[in-house]
Amino acid sequence: MTQVRPTPAASASLWERDEELAAVEEALDALCADNSSSGSLLVLRGEAGLGKTALLAETRRIAETRGCTVWSARGSETLSSVPFNVVRQLLQPALLSLMPEEAREYLGDWYDIAGPALGITEPGDRQADPQGVCDGLVAAVRRLARRDWPLVLLIDDAHWADQETLRWLAAFAEHVGEQNVLVVVARRPGETSSGDSARHLDSVAAAGSSVATLSALTPDATTGLTRATLGAHADAPFCREVWAVTGGNPYETVELLAKVQDSEFEPTESAAAELRALNRAARGGGLVARLETLGIEATRFAWAAAILGTGISVDLVAELATMNLDEAVRCAEKLRTARILTESDPAGVQPDDGELQFVHPLIATAVYNSIPDALRTAMHGIAARVVTDNGHGAAVAARHLLEVHPDDDEELVEQLREAAREHLAVGAPDAACRCLERALLEPPLPAVHARVLHELGCATLLTAPAKTIDHLQAALAMPGLDGDARVDAVYRLSQALLHNDQLEEAVRTVEAEAARHPAGPARLRLQAVQFMWEGIHAGETPSPGRSTRLAELAKTCTGRDNPERALLILRGFDAMARGENAEEVVEVCDRALVNGRLAPGLGWTDPEWGIELPMMLASAYAYTDRLDRAEALYNEALRAYESAGWSGGHLSLAHAYVGLGLRRRGRLREAEASLRKSLALAERVGRRLPLHWSATCNLVDTLLLRGHVQEAWDIADQYGFAPPYPSTIVLPDPRSVRGRLLLAVGRTKDGINELEAAEKAAEARGHHNPVLAPWAVDLTRVLASEDPERAARLATEVRRNAERLGTDTAIGEALRCASALETGQRAVRLAEQAVAYLEASPCQYEHAAARVEYGIAARSSTELRRGITLAESCGADGLVLQAEAALALR
What we know:
- Keywords: ATP-binding, Nucleotide-binding.
- It holds the Pfam family AAA_16.
- By secondary structure, the protein is mainly alpha-helical.
- About 65% of the residues lie in helices and about 5% in strands.
- Helix 8 links the parallel strand 3 and strand 4 (about 180-185).
- It is elongated and about 115 Å long.
- The chain starts with 7 loop residues before the first helix and ends with a helix.
């Protein structure tokens, strides 16, 4: 934790900062008023030396006098590549002050997710989800703020903060008003080169309740500061020259006045001519020249401190600078006396902060840049060895290894690969990519090169699928990837192609690789992956004979291993979509389970197969009326992703499918809540992705069932629920849902066109499950008056497909459809039969709708009241109104 404490010189930098200090006082008043008060965020923007650090120091002083807990951290130009560096400075000391069991109690489920990123617990053995880690850090601050209220967080030099910290800060800033904490962020404008970092900083500024841009001191303020420092006898010409030389920069002014005091000349007009030379000695090259006057040993010590950047302890610097400890102690004292280094506050630093720090970031930068290039590179190489030998691990050493020139160093490649694994395990894939990209420059040995490319491709899969494609294609073209590693690389490549909307190429890739392998587990896995990608393709040109080939292959599978289980799941899903007998579909799906559960390696968080297979299995159950099994799998996914901290696309899909299960069950209010969570998460990942379509499609469908037509239309318009549709299938069929939406808002012709497009797509794919793609039911109803013959044919086809599937829901819905085309007793009998089937179905909304329709057809108040009761329990407000209107006419 970098402590920002006021010194006499620093407090002098507070001249003309009354407005900024008033904003701080106001924010502290609000924070301390009540432990349930809203939090706030203040942003201080200003060029180097304009007093941002001094304002933070004064904020600390004021806050501590009011009894606040204050935590602080600072970005560093040389440490911006170290993931979670700044957020660790900020939070780690508070967490390490707790016993491990206390920390686990405070963080709860987030302990194992955010703990590795904060360095308070060991990471797991698999890649952490960056979004989940970010959410865990937000939760950590929220919980600690309740414990340590009133809490103030100070972040200096945020423009140099690492990208992972800035991602957290931007996420935290969105909800800072709910957190009961004051955050003050200081940054320079225009210093960030990374696009993501700049975007995060912009988000922080946008969320700020106050954004202050600091200006240089006026001549009057400079005069006042000069006389306050040197004495009232400083004459006006001298004071004007101080302002002219420093440009009113508070830091330069304070340093210049300190040099004047050291030189012991009088602050009069006759001495003003000396100020420019003194100012040059206090900054940039002058500072370096001043450093050199302290001697070679002190210079070496300062260089070593600048190389380390963090963890500046005397003994570590001594080892890097190759000097004995006594000599190092003397050098440290010289540098403190010269106002280059200062002692850290022992009460507030984290374990890795060390004993020393530079007085100001400008000094640290000047010292670092003064090291000759070749020597600086060599010192980074030595620093990597020093920090490793002192037990700091590969990830810490990697910062230095990134600066070393390529030199065919096999050991360096392995160190960077190990660092990449550590970064992935704590949720920092960008840092892992930097390590692996640098390893490729070394370059690796030919036998290792393809494996490094493979690892790099896997690291970029979630963030940059196009880069993953390049890396993995290059890896597969080289020798070195054999056996399971090669099969895994092909699978990852096909995943990347899928995510990059290149599904056909994904299919061709695994098909070609499967042809290279003899019969056995590897070939069977690749065949399963090919069938999987073909199965989720929404295009209208399926592979000829695919379903037949899949059925024949699945017949030979007993479920003895995961490739066979995968093929059984794929066969079950395909048979469900095609509308084959539900009992047979369920029998095939059950064979894919082990004691009724997903087999190890096929679970929701297992990386070997991915999320698609268990989703297909659960959906096969959902659309064959086995909702209990589907809901168990959907909820298992939700628990798995939440406990693993996967709060990005995977968690969005889990909420979407939980919502789908609830919608199928008829629990529409709960379905809507889950789907809104899904859509909020999907928005963070990006639009036009399959997961975004799943959330939007299901939410629109649920709102229509609830009778909230305008809201459904608004959601569709806001989130782009309209053609062109994604290349992967979405459940339920988006064309069917879009067609139903258009009919509901009165755009009948457009609705018919959309439903006919759904009909064409379903026919091309051979998808005849009338519950999965319900276009036929809606099209039948809308054509009943304008084209009754076609409507009758469609109703007959729906009935035939429903009876082939054989579920109560499908048959009941087909009978409802047929009843809508009839009048008199024929309509009543069909409606009554529909009620009988749907009463046995797990889908309560459809049962409620059938009750209402039967009550209307039979003119039965009793049935209408039963329908109202069911509709109210479902949250189907539109159905309730329809039934009440019919009841009023009785």
